[in-house]
Write a structure and sequence with these properties.
10 Kd Chaperonin, Protein Cpn10, Chain O; two-stranded antiparallel sheet; about 0% helix
Length: about 90
C-alpha cells in the first residue's frame, strides 16, 4: 500500500470518455475535469502553529480535479495520480 504525506491525495483515475462505434473518442469541450477514486489521504498540511489542516476527502470518495493538478505515477503497472487537496474541484456526494 502507498502512503501519502502532508496534504497529498492518491487517486485511481476513472475513465468516463464516450466512444463511438469506430473507437473515436468524443469530447464535448476542450477542457474537462478528471475524475478518480481516492485510495489514500495524507494527514494534512502542517500549519505554522504546528497543528494539521483538516482533510476534506476520505478514502473511497469519488472526486473531480483539474487535468493539470495531478502527477501521474506507475506502481507495479497500475496508474495512480497524486495531487494536493487544493487541486480537488468537487466530491461526488453519495
Amino acid at each position: 500500500m502507498l502512503k501519502v504525506v502532508e496534504d497529498k491525495i492518491l487517486v485511481t483515475p476513472i475513465n468516463d470518455k464516450s466512444t463511438s462505434k469506430g473507437w473515436l473518442v468524443l469530447e464535448a469541450r476542450q477542457w474537462k475535469p478528471e475524475k478518480g477514486e481516492v485510495i489514500a489521504v495524507g494527514l494534512g498540511r502542517t500549519l505554522e502553529n504546528g497543528s494539521r489542516e483538516n482533510m476534506d476527502v476520505k478514502v473511497g470518495d469519488i472526486v473531480f480535479f483539474t487535468p493539470y493538478a495531478p502527477d501521474a505515477i506507475d506502481v507495479d503497472g497500475i496508474d495512480y495520480y497524486t495531487l494536493k487537496q487544493s487541486g480537488i474541484l468537487a466530491i461526488i456526494d453519495k
